[in-house]
Backbone:
């Protein structure tokens, strides 16, 4: 029972990361599309007070995996070594860029950090997609350690997943800007959202059709009874949300597009869960195989049950404090 | 590095990334508490100078905190990338401690950091003060958990071993409050406070040399010198106690850092010398008879085990720990001396004008961080050749990742960290070069707002 609860909690942490840091990274990816310094300031300022908390979910996902599924942690990270290291380095550039661009004295210095934010965000998103794809296509394990080579993970499928995540985060970022900005910038963000949404839908279709081919268990689950009763609502809901998204976008709603995009991510994530359950590391390691001893899982669960609701409350408060449209050129003092 | 193995490079990578990282949390631990104290003093007294100094350091805090976060994320994943076997075996014990660190500290810091940096005009005074307190508390909670984890690796207890060599936690109270934890926690938190005190003191001194009447610089310098007077001696005592604890649980580490090879009653204290691992002796040793026994056993004729009492394959590196330890202790004693010197000048009413003291404190600006890195070198190199002391060898902890992979990633870390943290250091120095002025505005100055809706009307209109 404990491994099931923890699998749920880790999944929740990773989902929280994707939904929250997703738009941070998306704003970063779109960053250099905007030419005017003023617009760039607004874009960064819209996420500056919250990005740090958003990235903490990634630390929680990684640290949590280490704590409660150490085998999975110790297998996945070496298997995807280059992708993980590249992601971490990319996040370094993205993270320091927030402060550094405001501290740079010369225009050239600032332009350099602007590019670092954009490239860092893009590379981090791409690597996260690689990790997702690499996990889905399976990892070779022998005697509790990774038994494959350097580039086992590098396939057309993982690259596709990488690009898909970049597109998905871009869409999230665009919709975040629609919500938090106004004027011409908001208008352009609607354009970015339109293009990336179409691309994103195409990627959802391709990845969804490809994933079942990777592993017979996946395809059995998706296309045969009784699995299909559980799986068929997923594509239907994706289509329904797409309709709501286009309606919201064309009627110039501020918040509906972001809400719909996040719903897409939740649905895709649920689809992944359906494919993988109860595997933690395909093709063989289940959540029970990977689980830490019950004393570890129970000890951390006590804290998680009490603390995660509190974390959600004050994180919500932090968002609420910085609510509203971000205006250019306004000073605080 | 000819002849190097993957595990050596993995160690180099860990040492490099943690060495860069640890300075930043130490900086934020000390600075966050300092900011909370300044905010409290400002609220209590209403004196503008407290708020000016707070805003001045808040800019530095923003830069340092950002670098600390990104270098910390690397650490959270490095256990898996380079130390997968350690993760599988010791993860059940170490992992939950780090899980608690994330849940009790990282989220707390991150949640209220935004308010601390950008929210003064958006929340009331009470909420703002609570935010400063919570960020400071978060940094201390973080220190609590990470030092519990590190100390357990030094002095493990509260576990059983499975036949395949994995650690199963049995008693979490014993795991967290393991024998070396209280000493290490106290020593590290004080070290963070002292490091920041000397940075703040050096910045104050720098600006006092140019304008002895700058009130904010005076406040910085005065507070820093009080810290040096009161806290530096406490740190010496804490370090002494920590040493006694280490002697009890990790005698090989003590032998290595003292450069002692033979076990003899009335062990001398080797002031300086050149320990040689191959020849099993310390050349050119300058010794004080009986002092080693006096310091480490608190008795005249006590005996400290020498390195020869341990099999060669279980000995930590003596030259590295020996010299790192001497750098740390030397700097610690200098800090005490500076504190006393400053107190003497304060009594004589010359604290802010003695140019020699001001110059000395500027020179001592980075001393806390150097001492801190030296201390961690002693404790980590002294734990070798084990990751979990006496139980799990470093060679059996590494990932099955080959030499080229670790080498390339190490090179990438070196290049990226040099660029990023080099630039960060430049920005921090540039911020500190600017004299503190009346009406400091904090991180927002000159930077467009982070968000709108300050007025109630705007807030109502924009409410989601």
Residues:
């Amino acid at each position: 029972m404990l491994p099931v609860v923890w699998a749920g909690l880790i999944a929740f942490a990773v989902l929280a990361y994707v939904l929250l840091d997703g738009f941070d990274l998306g704003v970063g990816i779109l960053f250099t599309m905007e030419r005017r310094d003023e617009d760039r300031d607004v874009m960064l300022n819209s996420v500056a007070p919250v990005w740090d908390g958003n990235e903490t979910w990634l630390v929680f996902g990684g640290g949590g995996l280490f704590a409660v599924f150490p085998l999975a942690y110790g297998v996945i990270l070496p298997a995807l070594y280059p992708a993980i290291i590249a992601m971490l380095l990319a996040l370094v550039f993205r993270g320091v860029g927030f402060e550094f661009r405001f501290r740079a004295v010369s225009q050239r210095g600032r332009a350099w950090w602007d590019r670092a934010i954009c490239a860092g965000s893009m590379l981090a998103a791409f690597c996260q997609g690689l990790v997702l794809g690499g996990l889905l296509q399976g990892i070779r394990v022998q005697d509790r350690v990774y038994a494959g080579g350097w580039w086992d993970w590098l396939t057309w499928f993982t690259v596709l997943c990488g690009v898909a995540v970049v597109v998905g985060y871009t869409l999230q970022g665009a919709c975040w800007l629609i919500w938090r900005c106004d004027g011409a910038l908001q208008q352009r963000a609607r354009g970015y959202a339109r293009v990336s949404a179409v691309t994103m839908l195409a990627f959802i279709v391709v990845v969804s059709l490809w994933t079942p081919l990777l592993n017979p268990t996946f395809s059995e689950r998706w296309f045969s009874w009784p699995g299909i009763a559980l799986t068929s609502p997923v594509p239907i809901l994706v289509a329904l949300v797409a309709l709501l998204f286009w309606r919201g976008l064309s009627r110039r709603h501020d918040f509906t597009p972001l809400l719909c995009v996040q719903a897409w991510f939740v649905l895709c994530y649920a689809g992944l869960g359906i494919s993988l359950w109860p595997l933690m590391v395909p093709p063989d390691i289940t959540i029970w195989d990977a689980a830490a001893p019950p004393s570890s899982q129970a000890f951390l669960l006590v804290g998680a049950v009490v603390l995660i609701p509190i974390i959600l409350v004050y994180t919500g408060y932090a968002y609420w404090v910085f609510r509203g449209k971000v205006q250019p050129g306004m000073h605080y003092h | 590095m000819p002849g190097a193995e993957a595990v050596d490079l993995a160690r180099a990578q860990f040492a490099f990334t943690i060495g860069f990282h640890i300075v930043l949390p130490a900086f934020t631990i000390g600075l966050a508490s300092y900011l909370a104290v300044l905010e409290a003093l400002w609220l209590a007294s209403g004196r503008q100078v407290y708020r000016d100094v707070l805003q001045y350091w808040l800019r530095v805090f923003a830069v340092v905190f950002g670098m600390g976060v990104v270098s910390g994320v690397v650490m959270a994943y490095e256990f898996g990338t380079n130390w997968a076997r350690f993760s599988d075996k010791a993860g059940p014990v170490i992992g939950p401690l780090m899980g608690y660190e994330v849940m009790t500290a990282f989220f707390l810091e991150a949640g209220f950091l935004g308010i601390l940096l950008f929210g003064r005009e958006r929340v009331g005074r009470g909420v703002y003060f609570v935010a400063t307190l919570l960020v400071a508390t978060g940094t201390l909670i973080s220190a609590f958990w990470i030092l519990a984890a590190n100390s357990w690796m030094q002095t493990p207890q509260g576990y059983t071993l499975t036949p395949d060599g994995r650690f199963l936690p049995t008693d979490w109270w014993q795991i967290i409050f393991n024998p070396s934890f209280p000493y290490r926690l106290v020593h590290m938190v004080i070290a963070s406070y002292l490091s920041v005190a000397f940075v703040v003191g050096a910045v104050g001194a720098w600006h006092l040399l140019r304008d002895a009447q700058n009130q904010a610089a005076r406040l910085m310098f005065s507070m820093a010198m009080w810290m040096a007077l009161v806290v530096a001696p406490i740190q010496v005592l804490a370090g002494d106690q920590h040493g006694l604890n280490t002697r009890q649980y990790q005698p090989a580490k003590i032998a290595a850092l003292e450069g002692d090879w033979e076990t003899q009653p009335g062990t001398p204290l080797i002031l300086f010398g050149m320990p040689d691992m191959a020849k099993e002796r310390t050349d050119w040793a300058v010794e004080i008879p009986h002092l080693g026994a006096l310091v480490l056993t608190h008795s005249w004729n006590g005996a400290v085990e020498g390195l020869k009492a341990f099999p060669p394959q279980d000995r930590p590196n003596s030259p590295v720990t020996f010299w790192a330890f001497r750098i740390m202790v030397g700097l610690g004693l200098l800090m005490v001396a500076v504190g006393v010197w400053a107190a003497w000048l304060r009594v004589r009413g010359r604290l802010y004008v003695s140019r020699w003291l001001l110059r000395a404190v500027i020179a001592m600006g980075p001393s806390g961080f150097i001492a801190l890195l030296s201390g961690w070198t002693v404790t980590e190199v002294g734990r070798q050749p084990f990751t979990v002391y006496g139980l799990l060898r470093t060679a059996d902890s590494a990932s099955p990742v080959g030499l080229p992979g670790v080498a390339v990633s190490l090179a990438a870390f070196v290049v990226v960290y040099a660029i990023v943290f080099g630039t960060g250091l430049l920005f921090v120095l540039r911020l500190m070069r600017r004299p503190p002025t009346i009406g400091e505005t904090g991180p927002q100055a000159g930077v467009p707002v982070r968000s709108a809706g300050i007025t109630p009307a705007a807030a109502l209109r924009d409410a989601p």
DSSP finds 14 helices and four strands in chain A. Chain A has a mean pLDDT of 89.
